[in-house]
Amino acid sequence: MLFKQQVWLRQKLLVLGSLAVGSLLYLVARVGSLDRLQPVCPIEGRFGGTRSQAEFPLRALQFKRGLLHEFRKGNTSKEQVHLHDLVQQLPKAIIIGVRKGGTRALLEMLNLHPAVVKASQEIHFFDNDENYAKGIEWYRKKMPFSYPQQITIEKSPAYFITEEVPERIYRMNSSIKLLIIVREPTTRAISDYTQVLEGKERKNKTYYKFEKLAIDPNTCEVNTKYKAVRTSIYTKHLERWLKYFPIEQFHVVDGDRLITEPLPELQLVEKFLNLPPRISQYNLYFNATRGFYCLRFNIIFNKCLAGSKGRIHPEVDPSVITKLRKFFHPFNQKFYQITGRTLNWP
Length: 346
Fold this sequence. Notes:
It is globular, with a radius of gyration of 24 Å. By secondary structure, the chain is α/β, with parallel strands linked by helices. β11 and β12 form a beta hairpin. It contains 15 helices and 12 strands. It has a 5-stranded parallel beta sheet with strand order 5-7-4-8-9. It has one domain (86-339): Rossmann fold (3-Layer(aba) Sandwich).
């Protein structure tokens, strides 16, 4: 009798399990079929170049993300690469900076778009002489596999402030799209300091207070030799880039707004990159525990940024903050004038 009850219970569990799996597969298929009703996206004329005139359904690219993930892990052969028409393309857009402006968040959020493929690591090709000497083919092979209709984006924040980079990128592609994500300069400088401080503390090393680094003790003025301050003078670095690229090839992303209202900023980037609007509020949800928006790719896969994001800043003397903001103000005004975008900075 006991044996019959066990068999009956096992059969019931198998039936329930099958129903659960079947329901999940139906939901996935249903979402896919609904999305496939979206209009196809022409890519002719993107980025000003002559590309294939074929059209492609964005949802088809979305469903192939799993295959691309396997390629990134190295679980593939040359035959599979050829079979699926995959390539490693040079980037059509680069997030060139700014350090601690939100470059990682921007890259991960743009990767929500099915026509975008991201380079997972900072490659540091253009700002590292040793890497640059390896040649453009080495750089291309550092890019992820993608379909010809997709665009590859990489980010290396040091590009923005490194003198040799604008000319080097220009030599590769004079029509490339350039993304700059910035935060209020004083906040960015403190965030920069906080990251360095955390690294020192992990190694049980002492470090100066922010005030001592940001203010020259001899003159009591802002210390422009301090890298965290110098990086926040955005207009100085941008002027160097403008010797090679017209302002129309740049797009400024408000890094402060990307934290609180990411969707409008991402929609502006989609427009700048000539991508059809595909990132929606569905893809972004606020995580109250982390205090940041997380990413929803589909009904199964969600992703939050690394725990190192959103470090708590140390308290800084208010008079130093006031002095820094007064110092940055004229540079900010010039930055607004050059870029045509006014940001809500004090």
